[in-house]
């Protein structure tokens, strides 16, 4: 073995790298579905409007208009996470929404509850990273330089 270090030198010479990537991608696909369900329920509470959501927005002094806008953004993000071509863009947008939720929890509501949206930021960053090729395909498609990928990818 030579004295140079490369990441490839840490694996067996003939070990396939693809299964590990497939497992991680499958796990993130499952995480997208669970996150979409979580955001969907959160959005419904704001759009219905549920008493707990109304009370939180009243405590912040933001009112029902902000509650409906944020609920709409959560619902749009939840739906887009379930559409393979849009999942990466949705994850990028959700970074901002969830980071804002963490800051609001920390400063205006209940500081211990700021942990959950902060952890979800990490998850959506991982989803965005996993979906980066599809996001690039989407932008190429929108700029007329590509063709639509196959469904389900």
Walk me through this protein's architecture.
There is one protein chain. The chain is an all-alpha fold and 153 residues long. Helix content is 70%, strand content 0%. It has six helices and no strands. It has helices at residues 18-47, 51-60, 63-81, 87-107, 115-130, 132-142. The longest helix is centred in the N-terminal third of the chain and has 30 residues, at 18-47. It is globular and about 45 Å long. It starts with 17 loop residues before the first helix and ends in an 11-residue tail after the last helix. Mean pLDDT is 85; it is low at 1-18.
How far apart are the first and last residues' alpha carbons, in Å?
Answer: 39 Å
| Shape category | globular
Beta-strand percent range:
under 5%
Oligomer description: single chain
Number of strands: 0
Could you give a short account of the major beta sheet? Answer: none
Gyration radius, in Å: 19 Å
What structural category arises from helix and sheet content?
mainly alpha
Give, in order, the helices and strands: HHHHHH
Low-confidence stretches: 1-18
The average pLDDT score comes to 85
